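A favour between colleagues. Tell me how you read the following sequence-structure pair.

===
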Amino acid sequence: MSTPTTVRDDAPRPSDGTVAAEDGAATRGRLEIADRVIERIAGQAAAEVDRATGAPRRVLGVSVGSQTDHPHVSAQVDGHVAVVGVVMSVAWPAPVTEVTEQVRARIVQQLADLVGVRAAQVDIRVTSLVSEQSSERRVS
């Protein structure tokens, strides 16, 4: 035997008593994604590409400090469109154009997948080629 149940509907209704249609996401509010979020996602995406690595800081063309694992990334976001800049190194002897195209494609894909932002432009500057061997100096 079934038991009767009561369903309560506390949803707001328009003044004429009809049920309002579902509002779209655009009418409920807005989402702003900070430039820093885009920079972090793009930096991680670039670091995931084989033979792409961070660039050491340079002063007057001379490397200062140590090399980082992640490329340096800057971003400017306007709504759902971003312009991304990447400064990185490529491990020698990898083909630079191939590595940079992989980095660009990975950044575009990750931004679209993770935050729904279209990368209108991804500028990449390769500042150095680094040896995959240890950077210890040899004395002969």
